[in-house]
Amino acid sequence: MLVLLQLILLFTLLPLVELALLFWIAQHTGALFTLGLVIVTGVVGASLARHQGTRCWMQAREQIERGEMPADSILEGLMILLAGAVLITPGVITDVAGFGLLVPPIRRLVARSLSARLRARMIVVHPTGDPTQRYREDDDGIIDVEHRPADDDR
After folding, report:
1. What is the pLDDT tens value at each position of the chain, 154 positions in all?
2. Residue 36 lies in a domain
3. Contact 78, 5 (CB under 8 A)
4. Which among 79, 118, 127, 137 counts the fewest CB atoms within 10 Å?
5. Residue 54 within a domain
6. What is the pTM of this model?
């Protein structure tokens, strides 16, 4: 319920604040300047997002070819996609957030924070389904299993 309320506030209050801010800018600089600002930030933002998204995609492909899991590249790619989406929407607050996500150090900081929050909310249980047996973060990665031929099951 709380998430629904947050989404409603995000999709109603944020556009109203953005609109009020754009009107304020137009009053102090002029309507043409404000319109130009919206268009330029959209074009520049989309171009930067496309360029960085391509680099991120290439990095993920290289990691896959090396046999590595590209989890960080995928998360950064999603944030670049989000940055591009908010940059093409008119608004000053969303433009600042979008350009912030296009700055690699800021994006990595947000990715680390988001990743830590997601990991804190995850519960990984033992493959047997026994919730009392959990994997620890400090595990050495070795999983001990017993093997028996499939014929024994019949």
Report:
1. 788 888 888 889 999 999 999 999 999 999 999 999 999 999 999 899 999 999 999 999 999 999 888 888 888 999 999 999 999 888 899 999 999 999 999 999 998 898 888 877 776 665 666 655 555 555 555 666 676 776 655 5
2. no
3. no
4. 137
5. yes
6. 0.71
Residues in contact with 105: Cβ distance below 8 Å, sequence separation at least 6, in sequence order: none
Query: Hey, what are 89's tokens?
Result: 């929407």
Whole-number Å distance between alpha carbons of 95 and 49:
12
Q: For tokens 């929407």, what's the residue?
A: 89
Contact criterion met (CB below 8 Å) for 84 and 98: yes
For residues 102 and 82, what is the distance between their CA atoms, to the nearest angstrom? Answer: 10
Give me the domain span that covers residue 107: 42-121
Alpha-carbon gap, residue 114 to 89, rounded angstroms: 23
- DSSP sequence for 77-126: HHHHHHHHHHHSSS-HHHHHHHHHHHSHHHHHHHHHHHHHHHHHH---B-
Q: Which residue has the tokens 């109603």?
A: 12
Question: If 0-12 CB within 10 Å is exposed, 13-18 middle and 19+ buried, where does residue 14 land?
Answer: middle
Query: What total of structural domains would you count in the chain?
Result: 1
Q: How far is CA 3 from CA 9, 21, 117, 120, 141, in A?
A: 10, 26, 16, 18, 35
